[in-house]
Amino acid sequence: MSTATHAALQGAQRPTRSRYLIMVMLFITVVINYLDRSNLSIAAPALKDEFGLDTVHEGLILSAFGWTYAAMQIPGGWLVDRVSPRVLYAAALILWSAATFFMGFAGSFVILFVLRLAVGALEAPAYPINNRVVTTWFPERERATAIGFYTSGQFVGLAFLTPVLAWLQHHYGWHMVFVSTGLLGIVWGVLWFMIYREPRQFKGANAAEIELIQQGGGVVDLDRRTREKKAPFSWNDLGLVMSRRKLWGVYLGQFCLTSTLWFFLTWFPTYLVKYRGMDFIKSGFLASVPFLAAFIGVLCSGVLSDFLIRRGATVGLARKLPIILGLLISTSMIGANFTDSTPWVIFFLALAFFGNGLASITWSLVSTLAPVRLLGLTGGVFNFVGNLSSICTPIVIGFLVTKDSFAPAIVYVSSLALLGALSYILLVGKVERIEA
């Protein structure tokens, strides 16, 4: 938007800031989303003892979420292009939280596994919805900051609430880990339905704010467009978003990026307790340090990216630079293999997760590259490929580790971070929207 246009808008009517409330709502949703992804890793050591699991079966239960989460990404993305975020997000939140709640009453490995599969399937539309909402509510020059802010919810929530969940388990048993997080999500699902609206229907957003968003590249009428064009599923559309090299660059990069994330969401507490000899309460607090580092990284990423945009950098440079730097920093995790000092182990893991946070504005590229009418489908494919790591990482680590050594798993995750950086350097070319 030009300076003159912005000045004229301000002279007539100062734009409201309702979009920041939407950003906070997405942040809270992501906190709950990731608590329900990671709560199993908190309970894993206790579950392993109660159900007599070996490392291979532990890897299977930790990967269960990923099987259905990845499988439902494309159908979930298709739904996002057709169902209002107000309805779809509320329904998904309540249903996956109910499945989480009932995990607290599971009496066998099989029941726990099935419920975990259900959580993965029902969470599938979450990030494509986030991408759709931020594309609707934010101009391009604020979008990376918005994405960075709500993405930080996955880290800050875990940083502060992981010790709480560890305390709950220590005093009340692993059952309460699932009951508490499930109830939280059900309540928030109801509140989302009551509060969320599209920009033109949101009472707190005035005409000046809507114009600011629209002139800055936000697609404020996306909900109306999708109601008018509810086309059936098309293999041609899927072929389009599966055939572009630059999209495959971000797909592959996301797989590598989320491999680090899924190490922290699944095996990390076990690594600290079993392979580094920490007691469970101490490990609960130390586990929060890398999440705090990732929180700082993701906030730096969005602010840096949008700052570069405002200073005249190309969208490609502004979006890709933090991602590539972050992935390269994530390779520092391998340093944990060369020390027996607990502070140094936590330092290397925190530095690696800071890099993961710095790289985590990848959705800003999906928002910029995807065809407008296929935002949900593109996001679904992106999240499908990326979250194949939620299946691969827990299982591969389960096979790589031995009773005495976790080092091969650290090498595996570090190598994937390097591959992700190369993917963004070599495959993603000029950043511009793909026409359908």
Question: What brief labels describe this structure?
Answer:
436 residues; mainly alpha; globular
The gist of it:
This protein has 436 residues and is mostly helical. The protein has 23 helices and no strands. 54% of the residues are buried.
Structural description of this entry:
It is a single chain. The chain is 78% helix and 0% strand. It has 23 helices and no strands. It is mostly helical and 436 residues long. Residues 7-11 have low confidence and may be disordered. It starts with a helix and ends in a 10-residue tail after the last helix. The chain has helices at residues 3-12, 18-51, 55-71, 73-80, 85-103, 109-123, 126-137, 140-151, 153-172, 175-195, 207-215, 222-228, 235-243, 245-266, 268-275, 280-286, 288-310, 315-330, 342-358, 362-369, 375-386, 389-400, 407-426.
Say how many strands there are.
0
Instruction: Give the helix level as a range of percent.
Output: over 70%
Q: How many strands, which pairing sense, and closed or not: the largest β-sheet?
A: none
The average pLDDT is 81
Could you tell me how far the N terminus lies from the C terminus, measured between alpha carbons in angstroms? 25 Å
* Class by SSE composition: mainly alpha
Number of discrete helical segments: 23
Unreliable spans: 7-11
Strand coverage percent: under 5%
Radius of gyration over C-alpha positions, nearest whole angstrom: 21 Å
Pfam family, one: MFS_1
Subcellular location: Membrane
Organism: Achromobacter veterisilvae
Protein name: MFS transporter
